[in-house]
Amino acid sequence: MTIKLKTPISEEDIRKLKVGDEVLLSGIIVTARDQAHKLMVEKKPDFIREYLKESVIYHCGPVVRKNEDGSWSFVSAGPTTSIREEPYQSDVICEYNVRGVIGKGGMGDKTSEGLKRCGAVYFHAVGGAGTLIANTVKRVVDVFKLEEFGTPEAFWVIEVEDFPLVVTMDSHGNSLHKEVLKNSTEVAQELLSK
After folding, report:
1. Residues in contact with 106: Cβ distance below 8 Å, sequence separation at least 6, in sequence order
2. Domain boundaries in the chain?
């Protein structure tokens, strides 16, 4: 059964999610990559705080188009590898009251601890599906640090509808990424020992 979630999301609703749950996410979310995470930890800017409260960060460097009326459209919005944000993610989740992080590849123990402590989950988005995911972006609400950071690294505040995701790290310490690594390592060792 697919679970429908809409931001803002309560801690209670996030803590109900378990690894393997399929989710359709709607509402306001924010893209953030390396420079954005570094800024959020080092400077704690207020301009993004209201958008992140009980919302979701998307590790994404979108391809965008500026329309004739000055508005923006997403052309492609595939997930980027999340582990690069490992030094920052737990602090960002707790400081900004974030309820979820979207990316690909999973994250490490520090982030897992932050998910447990502050009530958030890691959502896996399908890599290689950038155009499909861009179709779930209904509008660009705002953009911050575009001139300074450039298009991929800017904070894009977007409204999504039925963004398809899978919970791969939950707020109870479970990680599908750890399970896959453990199982595949065991299989590899068995094959190499023959």
Report:
1. 82, 83, 122, 124, 168, 169, 175, 176, 177, 178
2. 2-192
80-99 pLDDT, tens digit per residue, is: 999 999 999 999 999 999 99
The residue-averaged pLDDT of 40-52 equals 97
Tell me the pLDDT of the chain averaged across its residues. 95
- What is the pTM assigned to this prediction? 0.93
Closest C-alpha among 128, 143, 129, 164 to residue 65: 143
Which band of pLDDT confidence, cut at 50, 70 and 90, is reported for residue 187?
confident
Q: What is the pLDDT of residues 124-157, one digit of tens each?
A: 999 889 999 999 999 999 999 999 999 999 999 9
Architecture of domain 2-192: Alpha-Beta Barrel (3.20)
Tokens of 162: 């039925």
CA 19 to CA 22: how far, in whole Å? 9
Quote the Cα angle for 23-28-33, to 5°: 90
Q: Rounded to 5 degrees, what are φ and ψ at 163?
A: -75, 115
Q: Cite the active site residues.
A: 37
Distance CA 11, CA 182 (A): 29
